[in-house]
Amino acid sequence: xxxxxxxxxxLVNGAIWNTFGSMFYLGIxxxxxxxxxxxxxxxxxxxxxxxxxxxxxxxxxxALYGMRSFQVxxxxxxxxxxxxxxxxxxxxxxxxxxxxxMAVIEGYSGVELAIIFVFLLYKLTEAFQDVxxxxxxxxxxxxxxxxxxxxxxxxxxxxxxxxxxxxxxxxYTTLSILISTLICLFTVDIxxxxxxxxxxxxxDKKRLKIF
Length: 211
Description:
Blueprint: H1 2-39, H2 47-64, H3 67-73, H4 81-105, H5 110-138, H6 142-167, H7 170-193
């Protein structure tokens, strides 16, 4: 009886944290667009920030390719955790090269190309976070994912506003978003999920075709 109560309590706690963390992070990211438009109107064009974002998004979606729902529904662990992680290396690698090649073909250069490159790395880092959050969801620990997103939102808010105000440089500012995301990935997501993964298991590379 107590076990069921604890499980239910964990599910509710996880749902609350995950919802709050996701909404908080999305709100902060939306705020960055407003800050660029309001604070940067005298020295940079907001399109210099938003256009690279729009260009990168389709490639970021390809890197994700909706595997989260497949991963979470694998309740019997037919596929190993490392296979899910390895598959993300494949999709992010393809998305990376595809995006850079298309950016060059489309004629992006200079600051815009640099922002595309950094923003792409940020979105691909998020794609890896999605795999680890999928594992957390299977373990009924979405509270950890929520806390990770909350921390990411706080770090992005501090880093973005500080760098943008001090440098007025959108490349450095976008880089602060990437660094904030990497900090959350390594200090929260990977660190926690490593405790739940069998470090001795080996991924079957042949099964990657299924994904």
